[in-house]
Specification:
The protein has 142 residues and is of the alpha+beta class. The chain contains 5 helices and 5 strands, in the order αβααββααββ. It has a 5-stranded antiparallel beta sheet, with helices on one face. β2 and β3 form a beta hairpin. Keywords: Kinase, Transferase.
């Protein structure tokens, strides 16, 4: 018999279509963070950052469609987890500006992307109007 936790940990991709998918995103992020040995604080930071990025897909992507891909990291004896959020939306015009506290293209508080960046160990953003946006975040076990 396969438990719910086993099903979630074996899930390496999640389609993000609407807000109901955010629950699944958080479950998958949590399962993979625990499997990577992250502490509760590290896990919580990773889930919070990932949840914000998934919500951005729902709000900003074309038809609110995107995907989460997740993988485990192992480098020089260190373990971690990486989440990649992909959408085919209109892209981010100015990534540096979007990472500034208080900047918002939709009238929000403008803390999402800069807050997510502060919660993880590594974050990269590639974005264009033609190909959408790819955001990768990584958290390492300390």
């Amino acid at each position: 018999m396969v438990s719910v936790n086993d099903q979630v940990i074996n899930q390496n991709a999640v389609d993000i279509v609407d807000e109901t998918d955010l629950v699944v995103v958080r479950q998958v992020l949590r399962a993979h963070a625990r499997a990577a040995g992250l502490s509760l604080v590290e896990e919580t930071k990773f889930i919070t950052a990932g949840s914000e990025l998934a919500r951005n897909i729902v709000v900003h992507a074309t038809a609110g469609r995107g995907e989460l891909r997740i993988e485990h990291l192992d480098s020089k004896g260190r373990r971690g987890v990486k989440a990649t959020f992909i959408d085919d939306g209109p892209g981010i015009d100015d990534v540096d500006t979007a990472l500034t506290d208080g900047f918002s293209s939709v009238g929000s508080m403008g803390l999402g992307l800069p807050g997510a960046r502060r919660l993880v160990d590594e974050m990269t953003i590639a974005s264009s109007a033609v190909s959408g946006t790819v955001v990768e975040i990584s958290k390492w076990h300390r």
